[in-house]
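Lecture 7 notes: from sequence to structure.

We start with a single chain of 666 residues. Read the sequence below before looking at the structure.
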Amino acid sequence: MFSIWEGASKRIVGTGVAAPPKWLSRCCLMLFVLVSSIPVSTSDDIGTNKRLYKATEECGLYLAPSAIPGAGLGLYSGSQQYEQYDLVSDSDLMIPWWDSDYHNGNDTYYNLWDEYTWSSAMFPGMYDDVEATSTCSIVSSGFGAAINCMLPLVNVQDEQWDDLSAYKLTTSGVPSDSPGAGAFTPMTGRRFEATQTIKPFSELYASYGEAYFEGRKIYDFVPFERHYASANTLINSFIDNVTSWKSEDKTKDQFVNSTKFEQELWGFILDLRKTWDKAKVLFALPGDDTTTIDDLEKIMDFGGSELQNYNTTVKDLEWMNEHGQCIDNIREGVSKITHAGRGAFANRFIPKDGLVSAAPIVHIPNRSSLIIYEHMITDGDKWHRNVDLPSNHQLLLNYCFGHRDALLLLCPYGYLNFLINHSHKNPNAKVIWTEKRRLRHPEWFDMPVKDWGNEFHSGLALDYVALRDIEPGEEITIDYGIEWETAWQEHVKKFDRPRRSYIPAFELNEMIDLKIPTSDEPLEQQFEGVITFCRDYYFPPDYDFMPYKFDTAEDTESWGEYHYTCKALMRHDDNRYTVEVFQRERWLNRHEMYERVLDTPAYILFNVPRDAIFFRDKVYHRDHHQPWSFRHDIRLPDELFPEIWKDPKNESSSKASMTKSSKAST
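Now the structure, written as tokens:
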């Protein structure tokens, strides 16, 4: 069956057939009516969850070739059937990638991750992380990066829980005085649930949103819900008209009454995609030049044009055993390794040489695109990056493989792969290249990076395999390499807690008995890098002043709160407070990286409870933004790194060596 993802690639057929004049004018009239209803594309077209994800004895999640032509790999359910709201994944890490354009000098640079990242505005924790969520993306490293989107067949969504986000911020037991502080993301908890019944071995689809397709010219033809509705109207009109022609006049020649006529006429309509290559309704139409009225009626009976590809997305066990790889052999949890944060643990017994997890690769041809620079002010009072003062790398570096002799980075995604930690002395797994038959571009192994590094799709994949038998519940580790180990030990040796009074706001807010500092106990001296706010539902009903409001996901809801900056003036014996509330004004110019804030006293509130006051982080103050936080790529073993991928020494030595490091070692 024809897929909209194949684009306008069908051959033109039927245009050379001599049609009897008796029906030609009516045929052309019908085509005119049908096609005139097709709009040519214009710019307008263009909390913590207590549920547990439980792995089954048999594989519950596969990585296999997607049913979407040209989409590469996709995620499939296992042998069990999911019902609506069942969890279909464990927790993804969410890695922020901030101000990348700014730190790359607003120049054009290659970023394949742009095809795999999510809007940071989806994740409430990001509103206090960076200055503007519009300049930050989220690498949802596992399920979120691997899942595809076919809008009519979306069957999973982000987990919902009591009208609150299931995402969470956590240091995973690693305090700010740990050498591991800032070396891993504090954002976790992104899980997906079924939106409907999902049959075994079905491809899973999440919605990327219409904006994803509207913002990419290569997807100009992709239809949305309204286009499928128009396509259904067109199909019904076609069926009615052609059927009526055949029933009205029994003297018509045999061709008009033949199935061949139906096929050629439908094929002619589909071939109009060649002319109107952005007409989304045309690309919502099913079939090809072999499609008959009977075929179209069956499609409409099945649910319409939006379900035309459904049967191609449901596989069977035999197909999955041949084409798929089981990827839910691991689960997430808090690592048992000191300073490491979260880790990956075996879901079930994994025999020696058995697959731990499959990991498709997103390649970054030049790691310098991850460098973060200090700022400088020019004569025009504008902020710019200071290219002479690189301060660190994006946090993503810690989750990617690299090599001492190359600028190339290879970042694995798939399912929980980013959680696999380091053990130099006693790893129980290792990485190998996956079988060539599973690779989209095995020829890249014989080509220099300059010849394939800018290809805008993934073409390589690694497998994590067991070095020995691994029992259920064991933490999975690999050896990050001697260079990583040396860099980490040097970091630990030199580490001296840089911020003596910093505790993240998301941890302070969990301390319900915490004494809020008052005006004679300066906040910055006790809790560096945070701001105190007051909730408006403790205000008297007649208050009348405008707040300064940090935009958050909850503020966009009808039940959202307004948040006012405030400070505690006095603390009373029962941990109640007298507070001063401020009206705050802010000027911000993203291009100049400039901000000025004025606080104006507006109100005094007496005897408010501790719950009235909460903390928020100042932007860029969390540990992973600090220049002292550990950065280092995982080192791919020499025997796995092709010689032809290595750079000349003068290209790679300076930039590849500017790494500070990632997680901790045993």
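The mean pLDDT is 82. Keep this in mind for problem set 3.
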